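Objective 1b. Sequence-to-structure analysis of NTP pyrophosphohydrolase.
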Amino acid sequence: MAGREALHANGDGWAAGPGGVRMWGRYGAAGLFLLARNSSGPVVLMQHRAAWTNFGDTWGIPGGARDLHESAEEAAVRETVEECAIDPNHVSVVGAEVTAGPFEAVAGLPGGWTYTTVIAQTSDGNTLATTANEESKELRWVPVDQLEELQLIAPFRQALPRIRQLIEPLI
């Protein structure tokens, strides 16, 4: 029974997004907007997603599916550790906001899907070393004022004005 419960708690799978589009994460998804500073000012860790991933060949923040018993903050940090090999002890979460959803169930896909952007800072303010896993083409610390120059995941691009408001006190 424990194996079946663990399988059921895993968030990997599809749910209904806007207009019935499939969105990854049976229990929603979360990503980590991780801020640091370098010589150019405030930077954020960005991920160029591998072509085979959901929204492949676009840039976004590291993140992914939430498991059943995870908070958005826990999921965002866990996914960033998996995708970027950062040390979670050097990450300080400062806030979170749902930036997409919830969406209605359609065509056999469960509804209620949300995406939560988790705002965090590196604990010492400096950029962290990263190592990309197979879900990434590239990881890069990007100046906050240059984010729009990247080919961003559409929902992230739409949420960016609100995210900028949330991070303004931090930068």
